[in-house]
Amino acid sequence: MSERFFRIILGSSLIILLYNQWDSYIYVYIGVLLFEGITNWRIPIIVTRLRYQGSSATTTSVLSPACEEFKINFDAERALRIVVALFLVFSFVLFHEQTWLFPWFIAFMLLSAGLSNICPMNMFLKWVGFK
Amino acid sequence: MKNDNTLISDDWAKNWEGSIAVKVAAVVLWMMIAISFGTIVLLLNNTKNDIENTTEWNGERLAAYVGQLVSQSPTPTISEIENQLATKIETFGFPAIDLTIGDLKLQLGKYSDDMETHYLRELFTMYQSENGISNKILLRPYRYPTNKLVKDTRNIMVISVLAALMLFGVLLTWIINKIVTKPIHNLLHATQQVSKGNMDTRLAVDRNDEFGQLANFFNQMLENLDEQRKELIVALQQAESATETKSAFLANMSHEIRTPLTAIIGYAEVLKHSERSIPDNMEEIKTIIRNGEHLLKIINNILDLSKIEANSMEIENAPVNLMEIISDIKSIVEPQTKEKALSFNVNYKYPLPKIILSEPLRLKQILLNLCSNAVKFTDSGSITVSMSCDCENESVTIQVADTGIGMNKEQLQRVFKAFSQADSSTTRKYGGTGLGLYLSKQLTDALGGELAVESKVNEGSCFSLTVNTGQLNFVEFINEDSSEPEVRPDPSMPLQVNTVNGCILLVEDSLDNQRLISLYLSKMGASVTLADNGKIAIQKAMDKHFDLILMDVQMPVMGGLEAVEYLRKNKYKGPIAALTANAMNEDRKKCFAAGCDDFVSKPVNREALYATVKKYLDKKNTNQDHENEQPIISELYKEDPSTLEIIRQFVKNLPGLINRIKLAQNEKRWEELAATNHELKGVGGGYGYPELSLLALNIENELNSNNYSEVEKLIQRIDSLIIRINKGLTNLETASINMHAQR
Fold first, then answer.
1. The pTM is what?
2. Is B22 within 8 Å of A48 when comparing Cβ atoms?
3. Which of A131, B270, B338, B347 is deepest in the core (most CB within 10 A)?
């Protein structure tokens, strides 16, 4: 399973959860993202390994000039999971009334990343120095 | 395996960099999202207030409706009221209501636990039941909490706006991709095809925008590339063809060169071991000479061919006496025709120009080749050479007709091609390299003429050579047999022995050439001194007087030209003729520039050598004869003896003037010669030497008639005049001295 496809799943599932106001499931959603970010047991990796019986697919990454100077030894995808989870905690859990639109924004950005094959957040994190 | 396509971590940056479609889609979608969220924020700014106001308003409407309903006439029954409310309840935005009429409580709609009471109100209107009792009406509409309503509203609005804008964005992306990305993909695909070698690929030019222009230029570029590729292929084929031709040429020439060499070496070996006398060995000697001449002819043909191929054939137009050329050819060809019992005829169709402007050497070469071919391919009958002049077109046509084997149409088409005789059977029967007519054609083209042929099988062939004559306005014409061209001496006649008298210095490093040329010169009657190089030649020339120096050009220690320059710098005035194998005009100019008076090309032709030697040794003899002639006294002195000094100065400077005339004549600078001769004519008369002026006048007249051979003869007479003038001056000076002594 590619990250791109998983983005589509993430984005569309968050949209569904927000529309139906299934707050508890949103908390689970946040929990899964945090789990993936902290442990690096990302769903796409797990699914791919299960499908292809342990064959290792390499991570291709293009390091930006910033990363060449100070490389943060932390996957950008993991960082993205954590960032998205924190954004959701901030906007949905803590300041829901004031920032009710932000979770929707996150959902559609995730969906757009999957559809357009471009993830600006990931590119930004790599530019910062994540690997 | 799908491994290659399923990367755990997609390289989003590469996706951005690697595809225009991705860039377009991403930018459009994100812009749509940004716009949509901005729109949503604007639209949903006061959602809560709006919902509360709407709910309030709906509550009032509901209360008014219920009041109106119960006060209808006739008064509706409870069930009717219930039914009507049930259908209308949703239009008021309340999912459930409690309606209490008296003691009766009605629950309408769908009630859920998360609902709350909007209000509990007793209506002003009373319900009049059937029994006439007025009942109080209590109305309690239920609604969802405001937050929920706000959330629902927001959700719907967000989904709707985002979905609409996303759809719009997708449509926009699709349009942009269609406009931009598709042509780029087409271009990419076409470029890939071209890189694979498919040069027939072309882009469809179905639009006029930048992509249309790009497609147009792409197609043009491909067409240019295709054309260049085809030209390269043609060039490659030509190069391969040239290589094949070269190989064929080498193969052909290898045989043609080896054949006479084999005969020469073979017969020379025979002679080496022969104990017979020279007359008995004459047959072998003649064979060696014949094969040597044949080999020389082949080599000359090869050199001419290479010059033509390299476009370095130099054509220098000069006055040509056609009658003399025909006469020369007749003298060469007639003996050959006699051997085969053929008749050789020459027809002149008058009037004919005496002199034309052309290249004498090449013209003779072409005609000799045509005549030799005619002799070769004719077994019986005659060979006729006809000459006619077309004054209007300023051209002369020389036809060589024979009664030989002739050629058919197919053979005629090949006859002027290199290495191609009429057919292979001709080559076997008659031999030859197949270069003669090809060279003749090329030389004719170089002369600016035409060479054509007509032929019939078994009847013979007629070759027509047409060359330009140059301007004929001031040329003398020969009419009706008025002057039979002088027949030149037969070059095949045996060498005249003891016809010259003098000392010759032969400077030649090759021992074989020394022996050969010495033998020639000795047979002529000259005494020969040898020198191996230029340095020795200088020593000998300075020590002893020589009537002629024959100087080889390329020698070790000191070359010929260097030696000549040294001699001339040191006031050596004797005649020097260069001996060299380099026969190009440039080389001749170098020889004359160094100070040579004449030029003999190698391999040394006996007749040419004889002519050159005779010229200079005859001159010497002529000078000696003229020493007995009467001295010339200046007429100016006779009138005024006091002019002796200026006459002396004039006579002292006279050799310089004469040398300029001779140099101009040697180098064929006729205009300069005319100018200097004119000067001589003037001063000669002015200083009292009318003989000098008369000679100069004759030279001038011959120059004007372009009769250069006569000019040469007249210039040779100047020396004798100078000697007589010097003698006269000497006598005058002697007489003057005696006169002073007597006084």
1. 0.44
2. no
3. A131
pLDDT tens string B416-450: 877 665 455 555 556 566 778 888 998 999 888 99
Nearest CA in chain B to A122: B12
Residue A15, chain B, CB below 8 Å: the answer is: yes
Task: Give the closest-approach CA distance of A9 to chain B in angstroms.
Answer: 15
Query: Helix (H, G, I), strand (E, B), or coil: what is residue B116?
Result: strand
Contacts with B59 (C-beta within 8 Å, 6 or more apart), sequence order: B92, B94, B118, B119, B141
Span B537-554, mean pLDDT?
Answer: 90
Output the CA–CA distances (angstroms, integers) from residue B645 to B160, B326, B406, B649, B731, in the order listed: 131, 54, 77, 6, 14
Q: Which of B15, B19, B154 sits opposite A100 (nearest CB)?
A: B154
The answer to whether the Cβ–Cβ distance between A3 and B9 falls below 8 Å is yes
Instruction: Return the closest-CA partner of residue B88 out of B71, B63, B113.
Output: B63
Cβ-contact B463, B370 below 8 angstroms: yes
**Mutation target vs A (from B7, B8, B152; most A CBs, 10 A cutoff):** B8
What is the sign, positive or negative, of the torsion defined by CA atoms of B295, B524, B552, B363? negative
Out of A15, A105, A122, closest to residue B12 by CB: A122
Are the C-beta atoms of residues B8 and A61 closer than 8 Å to each other?
no
Question: What would the mean pLDDT of B350-362 be, rounded to a whole number?
Answer: 85
Residue B37 contacts A, CB cutoff 8 Å: yes
**Angle in degrees, 0-180, between the axes of helices B210-272 and B182-195, rounded to the nearest 10:** 10
Interface predicted TM-score (ipTM) of this complex, two decimals: 0.74
- In which band, very low, low, confident or very high, does the pLDDT at B296 lie, cut at 50, 70 and 90? confident
For residues B532 and B506, the answer to whether their CB atoms sit within 8 Å is no
Tell me if A118 sits within 8 A of B14, measured CB to CB: no
Q: Is A86 on the interface with B (CB under 8 A)?
A: no
Instruction: Tell which B residues from 164 to 203 touch A, by Cβ distance under 8 Å.
Output: 166
Is residue A8 less than 8 Å (CB to CB) from chain B?
no
Select from B386, B21, B293 the least CA-distant residue to B183. B21
Q: A65-120: per-residue pLDDT in tens?
A: 444 555 778 888 899 999 999 999 999 989 888 888 889 989 988 988 888 778 88
Judged against a pLDDT cut of 50, whether residue B327 lies above it is answered with yes
Which of A49, A108, A111 to mutate to probe the B interface, most B CBs <10 Å? Answer: A108
| Prior bond of A120 cis (ω within 30°) | no
